[in-house]
Design a protein that fits this description.
752 residues; 6-stranded antiparallel beta barrel; globular
Length: 752
């Protein structure tokens, strides 16, 4: 029986294991055929079990989803013991093996694994997956979980099993033999957990034909997932813009980078106080490689996951083989991602040299060859901060050597970028980027739309609470407006239905094949969060934001903070929230002599800048490491750098008295480009993916002029069920060009 470090033996505190069981069960799901009702009680459509391996990704057995129809299944999960089950559609993304015409007498061939991507984003717990190269044992006990029919209804099952050895030796088909417990039908696809280390090491594959127990397949077999062009999502950036995540065509890297970022982000403070996998691993006393604490390990893995993955398995193996004093054993399957290399390190290094090797490995990952972007530079800097902190436990010569090499690396990066940037600045962009620098339908600086657009103007009625007037016009390339229709006294909660027919007519007049006309929604500052992009023109139609670019403009910028001081912001239910009598803008406001500053900010975020550190950057204003904070007043906002694109992570989570005016304050401070998402999530939701996605989108946009198309592409991807875009659910964009004032000088346009 192995010790606490290696796992395989039950032990540790009883409360910690009880809490671990709750986390496992919260992440374990049941899989049904499509067409079942919400939270079905009958087991007729039940196929088997699975578990959340990363946000909106489920791992199960291939033979489980084989009973689905056309690769479509329904995933049912239960966040907690007192929560109602929830159903969500899923699509099979990959299976191992890829094709099985007919299972043989021995059942489904190994590895018998399948990845299912959810069709829509949900909040859920994710298991922690071992990064060790071959986490199996010859003795000890493991914990399992799953679902199985009981008295005609699917019920959660869990228990412990004794490890009896392996089947297949070290081949890619190796399986773990488990015994001393009866496995009911249906638990196949559930997780197998090392209770001593608190991590998932395998997937239940089958039950024994005779006697108790069954088999499981090691989690490391996922490393054999192929890199297939078919896995690459459709191009997010239209008109030749590049995709900002370089590994989304590789499911293995996409899933495990999301897994490691999730567990890193879950260590941020939340309001729930619930323990995390990392908290429980610390209580269990695990120390990976006898060196790293669970906190240190999950922090390092999260920083590695912010970097692009290795260019190839060969490149990763070269790094591992080059480490001084380390002999990498032959592993099958070979390490594939940064996390795999780390697991191989502290699983095989000598006890007294593991930390030095981990720091050296992280250093070589940081300095590896890769395309350099501002986001990559930030990720490398974050990794260096971890290395520097870890090196305080090493000798001074090692610390000095690491610092010298880091300085050399930074110098190389600086020499690499300026020359390239200067050449692009002179020529208008590198050949691969010139096509995306000025996409069709934009001005030369990529900022001002030159094609037709549809304008929806809304004016709330202070004397008629929860009602508004509206108008619709077609705006030409030079800003000339042709009014089409208007209305008065419409209830806000019925506005979408009132304007649907008129919007449809405007779109028919302007749309061209493959080029839907954009919609500009000009809203008063207290209604800037009105979800126009979620409106539908008819029953069963796609949301407007997934059909065409939809952006928000501020209709009453010249009246800020507004004449309707008795009201707060739109409360999402057809009316305005309460207002405490203050303007919420943080003191006396300057007059309208700041128009030049507004224009300078607009120009800055739309220009191509020579150095990465001077380009437009996203700034999260209302969330700091997952802790909600109030948005600053106008004076502070005006002090931010001109290249700032404000981002609100929790718009609608109104905890502070002036939250209703946050967007208005940002507009008043001179910003014409703002990103936010409407908050309707749990209090302990993980914010890291939204922060990362927003920053990466702004970094990779060639000037803010690309953002309307990027946001449109993200909304389409969310609707199409692309898991990597789920961070952008409920995203909104203010895009208010100071060079293109709204027609009518703030008055509603009247149709002839």
């Amino acid at each position: 029986m192995t010790d606490r470090y290696d796992g395989g033996a039950s032990g540790g505190s009883e409360p910690a294991h009880h809490a671990l069981r709750e986390l496992v069960m919260a992440a374990t799901v049941r899989i049904h055929r499509t067409g079942v009702g919400y939270a079905p009680e009958e087991s007729g459509a039940f196929l088997g079990s699975g578990f959340f391996i990363a946000p909106n990704w489920v791992l199960t057995c291939a033979h489980v989803i084989h009973g689905g129809e056309g690769g479509e299944v329904t995933v049912i999960y239960q966040p907690g013991p007192y929560d109602e089950p929830r159903a969500v559609p899923g699509k099979v993304a990959a299976t191992l093996p890829e094709h099985v015409d007919r299972p043989g007498q021995g059942g489904w061939p190994a590895p018998d694994l399948a990845l299912v991507r959810l069709r829509e984003p949900v909040e859920h717990e994710c298991v922690y997956v071992s990064e060790r190269p071959m986490p199996h044992y010859t003795e000890g006990r493991v914990f399992y979980a799953g679902w199985a029919p009981f008295q005609g209804q699917p019920q959660p099952h869990d228990g412990s099993l004794t490890v009896h050895g392996t089947i297949g030796g070290w081949s890619t088909g190796a399986q773990l033999r488990l015994g001393e417990n009866d496995l009911p039908l249906g638990v196949s696809g559930g997780p197998v957990i090392d209770p001593a280390r608190g991590e998932v090491v395998g997937v239940l594959k089958s039950r024994a034909d005779h006697g108790s127990g069954g088999t499981s397949i090691g989690i490391e077999r996922l490393r054999t997932l192929p890199v297939a062009p078919g896995d690459r999502p459709h191009d997010l950036y239209r008109h030749g813009l590049r995709h900002h995540d370089p590994y989304q065509h590789d499911l293995y890297q996409a899933v495990f980078h999301a897994h490691d970022r999730y567990h890193r982000d879950r260590q941020q403070p939340t309001d729930s106080g619930r323990p995390t996998w990392t908290d429980l691993q610390a209580e269990l006393g695990t120390r990976p490689g006898r060196t790293l604490s669970p906190d240190e390990r999950v922090d390092l893995l999260g920083r590695l996951a912010d970097l692009p993955p290795p260019e190839s398995t060969r490149g990763l193996l070269d790094i591992l083989h080059s480490l001084p004093g380390f002999r990498l054993p032959t592993l099958s399957p070979a390490p594939r991602g940064w996390r795999d290399g780390l697991g191989a390190l502290y699983e095989n290094a000598r006890q007294d040299g593991t930390l030095r090797l981990v720091a050296e490995y992280a250093m070589r990952v940081m300095t590896a060859e890769r395309p350099v972007t501002p986001f990559v530079l930030d990720a490398e800097q974050a990794l260096w901060e971890w290395i520097k902190q870890a090196a305080t436990r090493l000798d001074s010569d090692t610390r000095s050597d690491l610092a010298r090499r880091r300085a050399q690396h930074v110098g190389d990066r600086r020499r690499e970028r300026p020359g390239r940037d200067r050449a692009e600045h002179r020529t208008g962009g590198a050949p691969a980027e010139q096509a995306r620098a000025h996409p069709p339908g934009t001005s030369r600086d990529g900022a001002v739309p030159l094609s037709l657009s549809v304008l929806l103007e809304v004016e709330h009625l202070a004397w008629n609470r929860g009602h508004c007037d509206w108008s619709i016009a077609v705006v030409g390339p030079e800003g000339e407006a042709t009014p089409l229709s208007d209305g008065q006294g419409a209830p806000l909660d019925d506005l979408a239905g009132r304007v649907a027919e008129s919007l449809a007519e405007a779109f028919r007049r302007c749309d061209e094949p493959g080029r839907p006309v954009p919609l500009h929604a000009a809203l008063p500052h207290l209604l800037l969060d009105l979800p126009v992009d979620e409106w539908r023109l008819r029953s069963g139609a796609e949301p407007l934001g997934a059909e065409r670019p939809v952006v928000v403009r501020c209709k009453d910028r010249d009246q800020l903070p507004g004449e309707d001081g008795e009201y707060g912001g739109y409360d999402g239910s057809g009316g305005y929230g309460s207002y405490d009598g203050s303007d919420g803008y943080g003191g006396e406001l300057p007059g309208d002599d700041e128009e030049s500053d507004r224009r300078e900010r607009w120009q800055w975020v739309h220009d191509r800048h020579e150095r990465p550190d001077t380009r437009a950057r996203a700034e999260i204003l209302d969330c700091d490491d997952a802790v909600r904070r109030p948005v600053s007043d106008v004076a502070v906002l005006r002090g931010l750098a001109h290249g700032t694109v404000p981002v609100l992570c929790r718009q609608g989570d109104q905890r502070y008295p002036d939250d209703a005016t946050a967007l208005g304050r940002i507009v008043r401070a001179g910003y014409g480009v703002v990103l936010w998402r409407r908050w309707n999530r749990q209090t302990d939701s993980v914010c890291g993916e939204f922060h990362r996605g927003a920053r990466m989108t702004v970094y990779d946009a060639v000037g803010a002029g690309a953002l309307p198309e990027l946001v449109y592409g993200l909304r389409k991807q969310v609707r199409e069920g692309l898991t990597e875009a789920f961070w952008a659910k409920d995203i909104a964009l203010l895009y208010d060009d100071p060079h293109r004032p709204l027609p009518g000088a703030g008055d509603l346009l009247e149709a002839p």
